[in-house]
UniProtKB/TrEMBL annotation:
The active site is at E387. GO terms for cellular component: cytosol. Gene3D superfamilies: Glycosidases (3.20.20.80). It holds the Pfam family Glyco_hydro_1. It comes from Faecalibacillus intestinalis. The keyword Metal-binding does not apply. This is 6-phospho-beta-glucosidase.
């Protein structure tokens, strides 16, 4: 069986990771603007100052305590401030995406460019205009925009005013932001995603270390408000334009039992359910699943679920399911001697049958097929793979070439796995790689952890020209798209 004729071959970028221009044309800071540069072995952090004026570092993905405030320190380089300068070079970059033949581009809209200081302080017209121009440029090259509304991009103003998603008021803030996007770009965008990797708030509570109950309480409270906000804007999108297709998006791994011990089988099943299905069940079916109360009881948390929330969840069911897939994980109840493999939002046991990337991510194309069948079997809903790719150290040769055969091999194997699932009856409507162009890795804060088809001459200390160079994978993916997935050689 061949790929569907209208299959959405594409790639991804994200505002906070590629744009730069962090304080230009009315934009206010986001958390990423305070992020340090991490490494393969060193965690990415964010900088703060406490109420007593003491400066410090805090884990990048953790919520700052109320007595800590975002602050930029003189002795750190803030890589997201410039990123890869898409803000000034979007025409050049989109022309390259068009040359590659992308059918779709998954991009995000920075909330802090549209409402720098909340909706009560008004829309930033320059921000609205910027994304209008970006979307028009995509259309110029027959690239279908796929817009993600929330992707690591909360204005710090809202975090400091309301405590971020810990406050129910954020539902209305997000609703107003989405309304502007749906109305302003009504004629340019058909496909929308509400939240990127929405399940990432739940994942820390199920990792193999003791998370304080209050952290789980806060994370799941934030997640509830995000699920309600997502449902409300799904309904809003349909009301504004009946042609809008709106999806959820979650971070997916294939979870395997490390051994054939039935307890390992059960714990791997429970892990997939808690980390992945928990949010997707709500967004697809419009209500919390049967096992949710058990999760809340085990974690000792109570959610502020109002009757109106339940109605909103039921009224805002999604049209398709999107998910990221990079790796798989092995789960066990037994203690093991081997070093644990540490991925972006995962900690698991090494799989002896798989190879691992430079950043210790299990490379498992069969896992993609496994996840596709699991999702389609559960939901019978169109699936869209958003974010699949390999972070690696690329070398720019003296003649400005990048021979990234390892990336081609990784993508080829995953596309083959996806094709097998489609042949077996799974409804996959599109595939977008991470990423279209080198950008700042959200997890490590590095540009030198490269994912793109286009090399950007910039390092992790801010040295470079920002010049763009096509990698070997650029020409390979162009051939894949032209052949609608038939030529993977």
């Amino acid at each position: 069986m061949k790929f569907p004729k209208e299959f959405l071959w594409g790639s991804d970028i994200a505002a906070s990771q590629c744009e730069g221009g962090w304080n230009l044309d009315g934009k206010t800071p986001i958390a990423s603007d305070y992020g340090t540069v991490g490494s393969q072995s060193g965690m990415r952090m964010k900088t703060y100052v406490d109420d007593n004026g003491n400066q410090g570092l805090y884990p990048f993905f953790a919520t700052l305590p109320s007595n800590y405030h975002y602050d930029m320190h003189d002795n750190y380089y803030y890589i997201n401030h410039n990123a890869v300068d898409f803000y000034h070079r979007y025409k050049e970059d989109i022309a390259l995406f068009g040359e590659m033949g992308l059918k779709t581009l998954n991009l995000s809209i920075s909330w802090a460019r549209i409402f720098p200081k909340g909706y009560e302080n008004g829309v930033n017209k320059k921000g609205v205009e910027f994304y209008y121009n970006v979307l028009k440029e995509c259309k110029k090259y027959d690239i279908e925009p796929l817009v993600t509304l929330h992707k690591y991009d909360i204005p710090v103003y809202l975090e400091e005013k309301f405590g971020g998603w810990s406050n129910r008021q954020m539902i209305e803030e997000f609703y107003q932001f989405a309304k502007v996007c749906f109305k302003e770009y009504k004629d340019l965008v058909r496909y929308w995603v509400t939240f990127n990797e929405i399940n990432s708030l739940a994942i820390p509570s199920f990792l193999p270390y003791d998370l304080p109950r209050e952290v789980s309480q806060n994370n799941f409270s934030q997640l509830h408000y995000q699920l309600v906000a997502s449902a409300k804007v799904v309904k809003l999108a349909h009301d504004i334009n009946s042609l809008n297709q709106v999806g959820c998006m979650f971070s997916s791994l294939a979870y395997y039992p490390l051994t054939c011990d039935p307890k390992d089988v059960l714990i791997s099943q429970e892990t997939f359910r808690n980390m992945c299905y928990y949010t997707t069940d709500v967004q697809v079916r419009g209500q919390y699943p049967y096992y949710a109360q058990n999760i809340w009881n085990k974690l000792g948390i109570t959610l502020d679920i109002k009757q109106q929330d339940e109605r909103d969840l039921l009224d805002g069911k999604v049209d398709f399911i999107a998910f990221s897939y990079y790796m798989s994980n092995c789960i066990t109840v037994h203690k093991v001697d081997e070093d644990m493999a540490k991925g972006n939002l995962s900690i698991g046991n090494r799989n002896p049958y798989l190879q691992y990337s430079e950043w210790d991510w299990a490379m498992d194309p069969d896992g993609l097929k496994y996840v596709l069948h699991e999702l389609y079997g559960r939901y019978q809903m169109p699936l869209l793979i958003i974010e699949n790719g390999l972070g690696a150290t690329d070398v720019l040769t003296n003649d400005y070439k990048i021979h990234d055969v390892y990336r081609i091999d990784y993508l080829r194997q995953h596309i083959n796995s996806m094709k097998q699932a489609i042949t077996e009856g799974v409804n996959v409507i599109g595939y977008t790689t991470w990423s279209a162009i080198d950008l700042v890795s959200a997890s490590s804060g590095q540009i030198t952890k490269r994912y793109g088809f286009i090399y950007v001459d910039m390092d992790d200390e801010g040295n470079g020209t920002f010049n763009r160079y096509k990698k070997d994978s650029f020409y390979w993916y162009k051939k894949v798209i032209e052949s609608n997935g038939e030529d993977l050689s």
